[in-house]
Automatic annotation (TrEMBL):
Domain ABC transmembrane type-2: 36-257
Protein name: Transport permease protein
Membrane disposition: Multi-pass membrane protein
Single GO MF descriptor: ABC-type transporter activity
Keyword field: Cell inner membrane, Cell membrane, Membrane, Transmembrane, Transmembrane helix, Transport
PANTHER family (alphabetical): INNER MEMBRANE TRANSPORT PERMEASE, TRANSPORT PERMEASE PROTEIN
Transmembrane segments: 38-60, 66-89, 109-135, 147-173, 180-199, 235-254
Pfam families in UniProt: ABC2_membrane
Superkingdom of origin organism: Bacteria
Organism name: Nibribacter ruber
Annotated compartments: Cell inner membrane; Cell membrane
Cellular component terms (Gene Ontology): plasma membrane
Coiled coil residues, start to end: none
């Protein structure tokens, strides 16, 4: 039954074009009323990095090589996941008009929203690549291993989609999930190796990179983008296992609870 939402999505024409159009529109609308417009898509991660750099490198003196780049890639991956999940908790309510008064499948609404976040992430990843390869003094330079970021990010996308489906469908019957997820998001920020040396993270939380899939994504992204190494395949397979499990659970909830979303919200 969990495959019902997936199989029904393929019915009809121009699905990909419509998804991409909706994603572009949503991305532009997100910054429409801001005076700096789309520039905020680039400015926000730099502001976050500046704040955390001052706190963790200058004040707390984290001894991490190429710390700005180390922090940059960790933050943009983490922010993509949190923005994608937090921003979709109420999606079945705020975008009810799309599935009630059009022929849009509910899954399309999730996908278009996450794709709009992918556009923002692409800007940030491009800035990271430029910064690390041309401005970072401790850079090792580009490598063919860099292309591993594609399957690593695909895993993160599936994980975000599955989590979004779970949270938004729980919201139908328990509105408190919004507040609970805010607390969980803060906890995830500090139990992921974003600010800390990896060796310190592993000493404090042995094997926790296997329990926290976000940690595995960040570790592997740094391996392929900064260290000139292939990903840890065992860790990547674990992360894909988490991602597909979350997606499977999310599709079940969408089939069970999402079908009655219009009545309950």
């Amino acid at each position: 039954m969990s495959l019902k939402a997936l199989t029904s999505w393929y019915q009809g024409n121009n699905k990909i074009e419509r998804l991409w159009l909706l994603a572009k529109i949503e991305f532009k609308l997100r910054y429409y009323e801001n005076k700096l417009g789309l520039f905020w898509a680039l400015l926000k991660p730099f502001m976050d990095i500046t704040i955390y750099y001052i706190v963790f490198q200058i004040i707390l003196k984290q001894d991490v090589p190429a710390f700005a780049s180390y922090l940059f890639i960790g933050l943009i991956l983490f922010n993509f996941f949190i923005e994608s999940t937090t921003g979709t908790i109420q999606i079945l309510n705020t975008k009810k008009y799309l599935y009630e008064y059009s022929n849009m499948n509910k899954l399309e609404i999730y996908l278009s929203t996450l794709l709009s976040n992918v556009i923002g992430f692409s800007f940030n990843l491009g800035m990271f690549i430029l910064f690390y390869n041309f401005l970072e003094p401790e850079s090792l330079g580009p490598s063919l291993y860099n292309f591993w970021i594609i399957p690593i990010f695909a895993c993160l996308f599936i994980m975000a989609l599955g989590t979004s489906l779970i949270l938004s469908n729980i919201y139908i019957i328990a509105k408190d999930i919004s507040q609970i997820w805010q607390v969980v998001s803060t906890m995830l920020l500090f139990v992921s190796p974003i600010f800390y040396k990896l060796i310190n993270f592993k000493q404090a939380l042995p094997s926790f990179e296997y329990a926290n899939p976000l940690a595995g994504i960040i570790i592997n992204a740094r391996r392929v983008l900064m260290q000139g190494l292939p990903p840890d395949l065992d860790l990547l397979l674990f992360d894909y296992g988490y991602a597909f499990l979350l997606l499977f659970m999310g599709l079940i909830l969408l089939n069970k609870l999402g079908s009655k979303a219009a009545e309950r919200l």
